[in-house]
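Q: Given only this backbone (241 positions), what sequence would you predict?
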């Protein structure tokens, strides 16, 4: 499996505080059958993600450590970018896109609202060759009240990343219900862990895949954690978009 959304890097955001905790998370991912993880630390202002960002240093250090301990686990870099206008201005920053594809950006809205002008920004990104991958919209309060909004986001040219924990009930029954609706509608492209530690919000995707399989069948559920995220990391244009 391929997990495109994790907070695995140490001492950067609300993920692990120490290298040892980061290694615990990575080991748990490996033991659950994940073979590639993308480190996606929170980035509140993409303009700050220049060469001097601590993210690059933490990534290189942790990759070297992981290489010595768990060399088979593939670690690549990205970031989880808080929505702001003109995101595609920063494509030159290696961590701005998933695996430096210069195409796929993991973007999050606040959990409480949908920002005004999101349609305009998605259109601007698409015009610049960027495909936003929207992080966990099923957790958003506005989407919970109106799941059809996600269909609109997909129609505007965004991909949707759902959290594994949303499907397993970790964020409550309302989120789980919306997650199931989005799956059945065919509006979900990737399931990822958004893991912050080995245990609490951990990296194991298997239970969520089982729940998804109950909604859309095993083959379609498998694609959400294998082919689709892998396709994103390779960076080619998304078919049909
Ligand atoms: Fe996240």
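A: Predicted residues:
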């Amino acid at each position: 499996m391929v997990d495109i959304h994790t907070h695995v890097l140490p001492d950067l955001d609300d993920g692990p505080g120490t290298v040892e905790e980061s290694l615990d998370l990575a080991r748990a991912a490996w033991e659950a059958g994940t073979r590639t993880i993308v480190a996606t630390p929170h980035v509140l202002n993409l303009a700050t993600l220049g060469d001097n960002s601590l993210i690059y240093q933490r990534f290189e250090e942790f990759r070297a450590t992981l290489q010595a301990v768990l060399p088979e686990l593939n670690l690549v870099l990205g970031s989880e970018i808080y929505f702001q206008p003109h995101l595609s201005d920063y494509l030159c920053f290696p961590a701005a896109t998933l695996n430096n594809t210069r195409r796929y950006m993991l973007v999050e809205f606040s959990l409480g609202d949908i920002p005004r002008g999101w349609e305009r920004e998605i259109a601007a990104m698409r015009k610049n060759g960027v495909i936003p991958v929207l992080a966990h919209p099923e957790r958003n309060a506005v989407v919970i009240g109106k799941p059809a909004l996600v269909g609109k986001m997909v129609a505007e040219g965004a991909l949707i990343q759902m959290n594994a924990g949303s499907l397993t009930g970790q964020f409550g029954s309302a989120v789980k219900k919306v997650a199931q609706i989005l799956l059945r509608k065919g509006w979900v492209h990737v399931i990822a862990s958004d893991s912050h530690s080995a245990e609490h919000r951990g990296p194991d995707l298997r239970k969520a895949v089982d729940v998804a399989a109950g909604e859309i069948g095993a083959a379609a559920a498998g694609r959400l954690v294998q082919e689709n995220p892998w396709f994103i990391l390779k960076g080619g244009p998304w078919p049909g978009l």
